[in-house]
Design a protein that fits this description.
uronate isomerase, domain 2, chain A; TIM Barrel; homotrimer; three-stranded parallel sheet; Uronate isomerase (chains A, B, C); isomerase (chains A, B, C); 468 residues; alpha/beta; four-stranded parallel sheet
Chain lengths: 468, 468, 468
């Protein structure tokens, strides 16, 4: 990976490059709105130093370790914990060296760009990381992490983050968010309501989760009405900790709108006898519609992230658990699956549902046509594997002609890799400015319109869509 | 949207731009062949003035009003009639102002380009439409519409239309077409045979439609043979009014080739007891094959437009009816679904079937490989949401390498927005010339070949494919 | 088609063009690694002259004759044999003239480029082929084919082929390969184990094939264990004739991992009573997993080529048999279908499975995410209809950001058209260098990295992946 250069990701043709650069310069310094992600709120509550380079850059980043695994490196050798407590590499420097020795695997990937940007902008390391300079990198990063300027809150400020949303389970006590609020620190770190553990009958420990949901809220979650009331209570509790949105990670986009009596009966059946696969799918689908109805009531923005086939390899899942790089996208239908929910609430003017996809074929065929007509729908940015230069170009080229810019929701970084946040937003800003420069260069947008749109894509759309 | 500029949609690199411009200049002035669309033949029969700017540009254009709806404007406030006769906005100027106030929604969409082109080329309005100049636009357009030069026939001539095909139901009396023919006006406006209402058992009023088909033809549509004979008679009647083609809008591309006794039994079952969803699908599929067989007999070109999931929102459908922007594409299979029809008649040298898609994934995987070997098949241009600059690039880049240019059928505008016809053909000509310039610039086509191909894509292929 | 020019397929922007040219010059002369294809080993065993231009360029090339068929030329008139021995054109010059008269059909297709390259580089014919010069081309090519320099072995050497893999049925006696080995000629022509005829219960003559497999190996293929042992024996026999790989052409990517007792019972059921469609699919799926397990044992690289719907038109299949241009791609699932095999052996460090697709939607959604994490998986190059300039760009742009370069397997020509081999590799080298130049120009790869990657894509990755 080359050092970051000032014109990276801009078109090569000189006129377009100049246009893209001018657009980028107008948005480069805007604050970061990060309305969806997976940073740990504890970082900002406790504000302790990040332990070491391997724990910052390698061990928690599934983009990074999955690539090493694909070429035969064992997860154990990268320090990824085992569920059975079995031995894994404990020496962060050894992990770092393995990571450094495999840099060429990342050529032309977003990870390469994010890492180079972080090394350069955060740690002043402008050379490419190699096996030869691995220790030099390690020592410098490790030393800097020990300095006050590199504590989480200091980095948050340095990164220019205006607001950062984390994601917590519906059962979370939000203690870290409370601690942040009570600390007097001015950084805005808010939570997001993620109820998968209590709406998905196939989630580990579903029955216990439902019981806990009852205990937390004082509602009788043994009944359908009590269960819905408990959700309302938890949503209010999350809003008290800054939440403006909910998030739903489902295998499909299936929604249902059963008569309430049938929904109640389905809930009873599942609670007392467990769920078949079809019942679990139906219940998740029903709950998306219920969540949407609650959003109409309480104004929370709803995010749907469907289509990941989680934990694809049974052996890796048994040994290392969730989120270990073995989540693979699958075909996702939106047109039929969302119809029950949209029939129920799709025309509600006060509702915002932000749709994501891991199936790019849906952009032009389903998502842009849907978002281009339903007032309740907006499209989230390219997600996960598609949060990349080419992914962004494909998204803009396929979505914009049908849905325009104003049915999209700006950028999300969706990351747990804290240092990658400014890098990801920078890639998105550059990629969008390249796209806009192409529109101007080919007479599809005026320069003044492009300047306004660049600002909207970078800042205003995310802020408005998430009501921040 | 910027004012139209002379080099819009051409590549930015100067050599390619020059090539694209030269190609475009060679086809810019060619007559328009419009072999598929939805203009109202009454316009040309009566040749009355278009009522006002809102009825010309907003109320009938689902591309336009769906975008406003997506941002919370009510269909009622745009003057779109209600099925129950409920109140809708009656003031065309108020509708026009709402439309003008939301122009930024159309940025970088084909609608923006079509509208700007129409305003400029038809009405001499070169500024962008804004909230501020909405009344100025309204008054100027309204005044001009009252002038003889802006009557439908005058615009038809000014637009350089050589032939325009409209689309009528199999039950239509074609009175407007007869009136046009008898008027002595030289404009060639022909009809197209669209039998959905009498081949789709799920169409509103199917039984009554079948009875009416019998009454119109004197055939006994209570029998399978009589029903087929009635189709033959109506096809002949349509040919007498200029039709060279039939058109079929089905939810899928499913075809069937049942033994005739089974087809007759299915028809009887449906007529006497109604159709299950599966029987309706089978019957539509059988009728595609029957229509193809009749095309072998009578030489009519067959168009198949599959894959739209119509009337996605039940409430909007109940309130406002069909064609209100809530038709959403869905996944469409061609390889299996067309096999029965192709086994029956796919190798017929005299048959032409033109395939369309709303599922772009089919271009490279299914449609180009099929059209690249079956003599009966040709590919229609990018359709509906994909009739756009990027849509055309994706189509050419994905289709051409497998099917070449000569298994495609030139351009269709497929519009009911009359003023957009020259704008749409202009976008298609420019987009194709950009694509061809890229081929020449990268050594994949010689300049003399590109000139010939540009002419073919603009004019000859449509004329030949539709036998015009 | 224009004459080949030195900068064809390179970007037009001068800086990018210079970069692409520099990269290309660094790999242009590298030897050809051809690890997967369908050349006839008899050519190199007997080293007789190719009979005539029509038999070299037209009759065996389904890319060529399918395009002529699509425009109404009959297979019979192109000399393609009939299964019933019916009359077909016998005059190669008449076939050649028909081919020459339809050259414009190939505009902007890979065939045009391959043909022009062969005419120019192999036969010194630099003009475009036309109806007018058809005889001149015919005579010159025919004369040259009679010269010693144009015998198969001489061309093999002139083309710079380091290794060429052919593909033989599991039942083949490999006599031609033995003859090549015993001839003393130094050209490396190796075989590949293709067991479709003995693993697919729907293959013509399956029962007889199983019996023959038993006879060839001395194993009792009436039992599951004997059947597996027979495969092991044949794989060893193929390895003795140079094979490093197996190849599997299945309608889908379905795999199964039944308990051995169930697999044995399924085999018995199929042998004694035949297979339902579902049982055939299950058995093919089971055998992919068995083949993968044998690859873990014996180190053979496994290739899976799924997704072709073969022999789409029943009449053409009955009249002319297999491989007549009527194989059409279909939707292909990998995520669910490969899961049983991957659960069984996907994490094996010594195993290499190379996946191909005819469904480009799988690149970004399924294949790159799978290959980007499973050590056993690598992605083959764009296949068949997608072995083209645009196909290669789409592949690189969609695959690289998720899987990088090092989970791909270099280029395959997959051809039975011998003279197209250097042409195809040249197109791939140029296309990849264009892609790399774009990465460098937009700051996503350094120039030194690009030089190394260009070499890897051209030479090293194929050699390593196929263990050559």
């Amino acid at each position: 990976m080359p050092l970051p250069n000032q014109d990276r990701l801009f078109p090569v043709e000189p006129n377009l490059r100049g246009l893209a650069r001018a657009l980028y310069e107008s948005v480069e310094a805007l604050p970061i709105i990060s309305p969806h992600g997976h940073c740990d709120p504890r970082w900002f509550a406790q504000n302790e130093r990040f332990p070491n380079p391997a724990e910052l850059f390698v061990i928690p980043d599934h983009y990074v370790f999955r690539m090493l695994v694909s070429q035969g490196v064992r997860l154990e050798d990268l320090g990824v914990p085992r569920e059975d407590g079995g031995a894994v590499e404990r020496d962060p420097r050894a992990i770092w060296r393995r990571f450094a020795a495999h840099q060429k695997l990342f050529r032309a990937t977003p990870s390469a760009m994010w890492l180079a940007h972080s090394f350069d902008q955060v740690f002043g390391l402008t050379e490419p990381l190699t096996e030869a300079n691995a220790d030099e990198f390690y020592d410098r990063i490790d030393t800097m992490l020990g300095q006050p300027d590199f504590r989480p809150r200091a980095l948050f400020d340095r990164f220019g983050i205006e607001v950062l949303a984390t994601t917590e389970s519906a059962l979370d006590d939000l203690a870290w968010h409370r601690q942040i609020a009570e600390s007097g620190w001015q950084g805005r770190v808010i939570t997001t309501y993620r109820p998968d553990a209590v709406v998905d009958p196939e989630f580990e420990g579903f029955a216990a989760n439902i019981a806990q949901l009852g205990a937390l809220t004082g509602e009788d979650t043994g009944t359908w009405q009590g269960y819905l009331a408990a959700h309302r209570a938890r949503r209010a509790f999350f809003r008290d900790h800054g939440a403006t949105a909910t998030d739903h990670g489902h295998p499909s986009a299936r929604t249902m709108d059963l008569p309430q009596a049938d929904a109640a009966a389905l809930y009873q059946k599942i609670l007392t006898q467990g769920a078949t696969a079809a019942e679990a799918e139906a219940f998740r689908g029903q709950m998306l519609t219920e969540m949407a109805r609650m959003s109409v009531e309480d104004g929370m923005v709803m995010q749907i992230h469907p289509g990941s086939r989680r934990n694809h390899h049974a052996g890796v899942f048994a040994r290392h658990g969730r989120d270990k790089g073995f989540d693979i996208p699958g075909r996702t239908d939106y047109v039929s699956d969302l119809q029950p929910l949209l029939d129920a609430v799709g025309m509600e003017p006060g509702l915002t549902i932000i749709l994501f996809t891991l199936d790019e074929t849906a952009y032009g065929r389903e998502l842009a046509p849907l978002a281009g007509v339903y007032p309740a729908l907006k499209l989230g940015p390219p997600w996960w594997f598609f949060d990349s230069y080419e992914g962004i170009q494909r998204y803009r080229e396929t979505v914009t002609e049908t849905a325009g810019f104003y049915n999209t929701a700006g950028f999300n970084d969706d990351t747990r890799a804290f240092c990658s946040i400014p890098a990801r937003h920078d890639v998105a800003r550059r990629s969008d400015c390249s796209y806009l420069a192409n529109l101007v260069g080919t007479g599809r947008l005026s320069e003044s319109e492009a300047l306004e749109v660049a600002h909207d894509l970078t800042y205003r759309l995310a802020k408005d869509a998430y009501r921040l």
